Amino acid sequence: MNKYQEVLNNVISYLGVARCDYRKSGKVKEDICLIQELVDKATPKKPLLDEILRGIGILSIRDGGGLINGYRCVCPNCMNPSIYDPGCDERFNYCSVCGQAIDWEE
After folding, report:
1. pLDDT in the model for residue 82
2. 33, 66, 73, 98: least CB-packed within 10 angstroms?
């Protein structure tokens, strides 16, 4: 659990509200849900395989040497390939479209 999630859990506990219970309404619930969305985006996630590549028979984000190939990857949140720039062979730590944190750890 990252520090943002820990703080959000503490706030939820202090306020005595349910986490994103969509059956209830109210400003506090809406704010808690928005903060949870931000916490989720700040929590790094592994990139996913671009479905277009899966369609042509590539089944892994890893290359023949077992390393993550940025060219094969898309954001796990919005499925956009904007987490890698093939022109400069650069991996980005955040998606430029949705802001999702990316975990490139091998």
Report:
1. 93
2. 66
